[in-house]
Amino acid sequence: MSETKHTLGPWEVKDDRFIDSPSGWIADVLSYPAYRAATGQDSEEQKANARLIAAAPDLYEALTEALRWIGKLSDWYGVGDPDIDKWRATIKKAKGEL
Questions:
Q1: Which residues contact 59 (CB under 8 A, 6 or more apart)?
Q2: How many helices (H) and strands (E) does the chain have?
Q3: Could you report the per-residue pLDDT of 53-85, keeping only the tens digit for each?
Q4: What is the H or E stretch that residue 48 is in?
Q5: Could you tell me if residue 25 is inside a domain?
């Protein structure tokens, strides 16, 4: 298993736009006023983006665990399943391997 390179979770949203973790600040989601004005993104979209980003470590862990669990099934070989292939590609993308 490869070592984790990202900031460990849990991540949470603070003040509707800041992503934080126990080890510190992660990101400021679209806080730059000129960018927000230029893109037209409103605070509801900004809040939704922040929630999605904050959920990333949990989503990554859940998907990794789902693949591990499916791999234990005695009647499944994991070959040629487009959904499972998509899951694997998503994990690779998150690791920067794609």
A1: none
A2: 3, 3
A3: 999 999 999 999 998 888 777 676 666 788 888
A4: helix 43-71
A5: yes
What does pTM read for this prediction? Answer: 0.73
In a domain, 18, yes or no: yes
CA–CA distance, 89 with 98 (Å, rounded to integer):
8
pLDDT for 2 beyond 60: no
Q: Are 60 and 91 in contact (CB under 8 A)?
A: yes
- Evaluate whether residue 1 is within a structural domain: no
Question: Which residues does residue 98 pair with via DSSP β-bridges, in sequence order?
Answer: none
The SS3 assignment for 32 reads coil
28, two tokens: 């400021």
Closest Cα partner for 81 from 95, 71, 96?
Answer: 71
**59 found inside a domain:** yes
What total number of domains does the chain contain? 1
